[in-house]
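Please describe our next protein:
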Amino acid sequence: MTAYFYILSCSDGTFYTEVTHDLVNRVGEHIEGLNPSAYTYSRRPVKLVHYETFDTIEQALKRWSELARTTRWKKSEMLKIGLGK
């Protein structure tokens, strides 16, 4: 089953990073704001700015762990140059 690592840009200038097996559905949930306790709920609108595909969720989680604690500035710079792998 394909796994995805994705980055959302939030209206407050922050980025949200996560992994999922269903990118379209998951991003839709963020956009619709279905969970009031979710990080993105109060930061809508959100926009998908980057995603990567992987063969396993473990590979996607590894990529997430590489970038999750990266500063907003560094993520922004990385997005400008295509995040490089």
Notes: DSSP finds three helices and three strands in the chain. The mean pLDDT is 91. The domain at 3-80 is CATH 3.40.1440.10 (GIY-YIG endonuclease). The longest strand covers residues 46-54.
